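Our consortium's second objective concerns turning raw sequence data into structural hypotheses that experimental partners can test. To show how far this objective has progressed, the report includes one record in full. It was chosen at random from the queue rather than selected for favorable results. The single chain below, 223 residues long, was entered without modification.
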Amino acid sequence: MNSLFDINTALGRRIEGALSALVVLAVSTLIAETLVDEGSLATWIIRLEIVFGAIFGLEYLLRIVTSDKRRRYIFSFYGVVDLLAALSSLVLLPGLGAAKILRVFRAFRIFKLVRYSDALGRFSRAFDDIKDELAIYLCATGILTFIASYGIYVFEHEENEHYNNLFECVYWSIASLTAGAEGIAPVTVAGKLLTIVLVMIGLGVVAVPSGLLASALSRQDHE
C-alpha cells in the first residue's frame, strides 16, 4: 500500500501521472463552467465535477491510510490542498450551492500539479529559513495597518462617506500599503498627509519580504 503514491515505484508514477492528468481535466472543466450557464454541456460539467470530487476524496483517504506519518500529512500544505480538492465538490449538494468559498476552493486543485516540483521545494525550504523574520514583519505590518486605519477613520469619517467604519479603513490602509487605494482618496489635509506617509512606508513594506525571500533562495542555491 505504501507504494501507491511513491514516485520511486512504477505503480506510484503511474498513479501520480493519472492524478496529474485528472487535475488538468478538472481545471479545464472549471474554466468551461464559466463559459456555460445551462444546457446539456452544463449538465455534463456537473457530472464530471461529482466524479472529480469522488476521486479526489478517495485519493485523500488513501494517502492518509498509506502514510507513515498521517498527522504530518493531514496538516501539511499538500494535505490541506488534497482535502480542499475533495470538499470543494460539496458545492453541488442541495443547500450548499450558494457557498461561494467552496467554489473558490476548486481552483486550489491546481496546486496538486506541483507536488513534486523541485522549484516549489526550494521555495518551501526558503520560507522555512525566514519564517521567524516573516512573523516579525507581519506583526509589525499588522500594527502599522491598525494605527493607520484608526487614524484615517478619525480624520475622515465625518467628511468622507468612504470611511464610515474601521473595516473600510482597514481596506484603505492595506490598499495604500500595496497598490494604492484608488477611488477612496481622503479629503482632509490630515488624511492626505497620512496617506502620503503610508504610501512611502508601503514601498518598504513590499520590498522587505521580497528581499528576505530572494536572500533565502540565494542561500538555497549555494547549498
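The partners drew two points from this record. The mean pLDDT is 79. The chain is about 70% helix and 0% strand. Both points have been shared with the crystallography group to help prioritize constructs.
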